[in-house]
Amino acid sequence: xxxxxxxxxxxxxxxxxxxxxxxxxxxxxxxxxxxxxxxxxxxxxxxxxxxxxxxxxxxxxxxxxxxxxxxxxxxxxxxxxxxxxxxxxxxxxxxxxxxxxxxxxxxxxxxxxxxxxxxxxxxxxxxxxxxxxxxxxxxxxxxxxxxxxxxxxxxxxxxxxxxxxxxxxxxxxxxxxxxxxxxxxxxxxxxxxxxxxxxxxxxxxxxxxxxxxxxxxxxxxxxxxxxxxxxxxxxxxxxxxxxxxxxxxxxxxxxxxxxxxxxxxxxxxxxxxxxxxxxxxxxxxxxxxxxxxxxxxxxxxxxxxxxxxxxxxxxxxxxxxxxxxxxxxxxxxxxxx
Amino acid sequence: xxxxxxxxxxxxxxxxxxxxxxxxxxxxxxxxxxxxxxxxxxxxxxxxxxxxxxxxxxxxxxxxxxxxxxxxxxxxxxxxxxxxxxxxxxxxxxxxxxxxxxxxxxxxxxxxxxxxxxxxxxxxxxxxxxxxxxxxxxxxxxxxxxxxxxxxxxxxxxxxxxxxxxxxxxxxxxxxxxxxxxxxxxxxxxxxxxxxxxxxxxxxxxxxxxxxxxxxxxxxxxxxxxxxxxxxxxxxxxxxxxxxxxxxxxxxxxxxxxxxxxxxxxxxxxxxxxxxxxxxxxxxxxxxxxxxxxxxxxxxxxxxxxxxxxxxxxxxxxxxx
Amino acid sequence: xxxxxxxxxxxxxxxxxxxxxxxxxxxxxxxxxxxxxxxxxxxxxxxxxxxxxxxxxxxxxxxxxxxxxxxxxxxxxxxxxxxxxxxxxxxxxxxxxxxxxxxxxxxxxxxxxxxxxxxxxxxxxxxxxxxxxxxxxxxxxxxxxxxxxxxxxxxxxxxxxxxxxxxxxxxxxxxxxxxxxxxxxxxxxxxxxxxxxxxxxxxxxxxxxxxxxxxxxxxxxxxxxxxxxxxxxxxxxxxxxxxxxxxxxxxxxxxxxxxxxxxxxxxxxxxxxxxxxxxxxxxxxxxxxxxxxxxxxxxxxxxxxxxxxxxxxxxxxxxxxxxxxxxx
Lengths: 337, 321, 328
Fold this sequence. Notes:
The structure holds 3 protein chains of 3 kinds.
Chain A: E1 4-17, E2 20-33, E3 37-41, H1 48-56, E4 64-72, E5 75-76, H2 82-88, E6 93-96, H3 110-122, H4 128-138, H5 144-148, H6 157-169, E7 175-179, H7 187-204, E8 207-212, H8 215-221, E9 224-229, E10 232-238, H9 239-244, H10 249-257, H11 297-301, E11 309-312, E12 315-317, H12 328-336
Parallel strand pairs in A: 3-8, 3-9, 6-7, 7-8
Antiparallel strand pairs in A: 1-2, 1-4, 4-5, 9-10, 10-12, 11-12
Helix pairs in contact in A: 3-4, 3-6, 4-6, 6-7
Chain B: H1 2-29, H2 45-55, H3 61-73, H4 89-124, H5 129-143, H6 146-160, H7 177-197, H8 200-215, H9 218-225, H10 230-267, H11 273-282, H12 286-314
Helix pairs in contact in B: 1-12, 4-5, 4-7, 4-8, 4-10, 5-8, 6-7, 7-10, 8-10, 9-10, 10-11, 10-12, 11-12
Chain C: E1 3-18, E2 23-39, E3 43-47, H1 54-62, E4 69-74, E5 77-78, H2 82-87, E6 94-97, H3 101-104, H4 111-122, H5 141-154, H6 171-183, E7 189-193, H7 201-218, E8 221-226, H8 229-235, E9 238-243, E10 246-252, H9 253-258, H10 263-271, H11 280-296, H12 298-301, E11 312-314, E12 320-322
Parallel strand pairs in C: 3-8, 3-9, 6-7, 7-8
Antiparallel strand pairs in C: 1-2, 1-4, 4-5, 9-10, 10-12, 11-12
């Protein structure tokens, strides 16, 4: 039995917008085991980064209300004071951000920035600079001596992302959160960075929460996938099952929108409409169904249970609409047979 | 780095020539000359003509310009016609430059101290009453003409609350430098403080919005995610990034003091370069005016150079290898 | 097939300055001796990592930058320089679509004004579609307004869009507005520089479908610049792979994806993650093998001690590879 690392129960996040609170994340349940890569997939506005920021406790407390429970190694995180949070940010959880250029301080040498991650938790020690060089070597930077003295703008995008990873690893965290870690990178560099994350994760036995909108990246390194739409998880499954046997209409639509899954000359599936704005989100419904034009309005308006249904071992889906869901071209084929 | 500075200085030379030409032409365009007005109305026109001839004022402008430049290269800026009649221009300016310099340096230091502390206070308490009060105050000082404030300060601290002397510089001939320096501080402080109080607004506004912008930057989030407390993030990351564009402005603001000195020195009866400029203008003292404008032009160019050097020094992204 | 654009030996060098007098000491070869023919109604993909020079080619092609040397022919007219392009109102025929629709739309102008801009400059062609490109053009304001509405209909946006401002639209909608503007003058070639890389998958699908449709319906040629091989594979008939300012391989979609020859192409292809999760391990091994081959056989594909690829040589009628001459 895998050892449970992170357990999120019924996590909701409300943002205060013009005096009223609006729900951006509605009752998310997730667990990450040690040594597991869990991918959180969804489009912009789906709430996946909001979830990551809740684990890190980095929401602006004056504008945000986080409820529910997030336990890391059995310790509750929600409700910690800033000082308590500082203890474990960067220590038991390391985070890698999307754009490594803007995410690094432009005026600070690479070495100093990594050293800061170490000293802030361990105090200043002589071994720090040695530790920094080791970290740089570990993330595949050969001339670590030179790079440590450089500034972010002097490095390539791929190198900068390696630096970000080194920083996140500084205190051997149990959990690594990677928020779109390869979105800004070219294909070859992307595959190198993904390999690196995987290698380090396996070596350290850490858990990884990978946040991405890129299905290819998910297929490449995830063990388990949770698909998010409008602040809720709509489907969760081991990675092979999700790609080979997707159930929820949203997951299926996304896969059809990806050029990779279209036969030559075929048309991509363009999901009609747009993600509803926060004020329009009624989380008692399966909100994606609004964007399936051929569906019966009664089904669209129907209330849906808050919890996911386990339809086969480890495969969870929200609502029941998936049972009769078919794309128009599939319906024709069914009609003929 | 040294190479870049040297190259920049070489580039300044043609700029200087252009500036000097411009200044000379402007001086030529000024109505009248020093001999009108200051002489006995009954003087023989032939005498005036002789004097003008002796001063070279009857030559074509380009010959006058060449003579002027030749003399400048020999350190000779001519003789004052009216302000200190018969004194060399270098001597006149020399006697006036120290008060302005000391007042200017104090003013720049105070300006930055005031602007930075106000901006830090405002940014840390964004949208609280103290922030709003500072924003209103700085809007006020930028909207009302500075000389109005100068009078108010004069009335407050010289007449109603006589903390500071009403005129003079405290510098006496024959006294040692140290004595003069400390005596002068008492005289220089009020005009310097006044200049500073009312020139903080642009730096304040800029720095305040910079500080707020920087807080929302991605690298701040990264530092927070490392476990660095907000206080430390502010000190180690945000401050330096927010100060960056301000630092490069220091070069310019030092030269800006000369301009600011014109009002302040006249109102506070502080006989420095600013007051000299006003005297020279009313007395049509060509040689002084052109020398002062040349001084200001040169300082502006040097200020620009200084600003570039400071930016290159503090910002690794524009540092030249 | 008719030849629309012919690029020959195109170069774009940036001087590297140094020394006391800031003299030119070296060149950065952003684009280094590249030739390409674009035929009417065909789609082309230009693939490479960031900094490979692909965007620079696009910019020289639409007239945002002058080449250092080489030639661009359009309809057999010399349009190498920006000046030559201006002289024949070249941009009514060749338009560019950028990645970032946010910054390529003026936030203070209404969508109507934005789409009308090229029409104010070049006039309204008689009919939508490339048949209209040689016809009389009209500058009548009423015709311009009518044309703007037509274009909005083509890109699937309601007529009221005319009065609205860019910020009122989502990323996908803005990208369609940009395409509408590009289509306004009936161009014969659209250069699209990473047009979908900032978009979510579902929105990307909308924009790609739509671009494909207008391409087919109006027979417009497309040069699709992208680092995303999946998108290029879906969108284009012909592909050129670029590395360090040089073409390393050029061929049809099938040539490149089914019979890649150059080691860099192979490396790019091996880097595309597979959605067949069960192939994950074998893909990773293949990737490592190609990376090893890249290091081992460097001299076969690049001039000794440099990253400059050899000149292209044909291996079939459509397929060209840069490889050392003695290689067989």
